Amino acid sequence: MTFKEIQELIKLVGKSNLTEVKLKKKDFEISIRTKKYRKSMQQVMSAPAPMVSMAAAPAASSAPVAKAAPTPAAPEEDEDAGLLEVKSPIVGTFYRSSSPDKPAFAKVGDTIAEGDVVCIVEAMKLFNEIESEISGKIVKVMCEDASPVEYDQVLFLVDPKG
Length: 162
What we know:
The protein is an alpha+beta fold. It has three domains: 1-44, no CATH class; 47-82, no CATH class; 83-162, CATH 2.40.50.100. The protein is built from four helices and ten strands; from the N terminus they run H-E-E-H-H-H-E-E-E-E-E-E-E-E. Strands 3-10-8-5 form a four-stranded antiparallel sheet, covered by helices on one side. The longest helix is centred in the N-terminal third of the chain and has 13 residues, at 3-15. It is globular and about 40 Å long.
């Protein structure tokens, strides 16, 4: 699929009543979500707790084996309760700033609003600004700078009350 075809697909999805489109051809996969997707997901989700538990699991598994006892994991889940996630909409390389000599778009303690640029994800030599879909205070950055990220991987944990 060419870049022009992708752009036209994005325009068509934006004009339609669709909330999400996923297209898969052999080794190529694309997923497009509209603003309507965010609104419909907010209505469907009654509480963010299930998403938080999934985010807490990798953090607990990265601890050394000797310290991976269930007791330390329980308080960590309590700390993350009620936090929302900013996820990567694409596969690529995560960058916290536009260049090494520039400050990070968002860091722990910053208050962000919906639509604020929080990072960049480079995919196929294109630098994509990632905008927050939520408002609140950044509590934790879940990725290292210049590290690879997957589709739907959690990039930031945000306290909506912050």
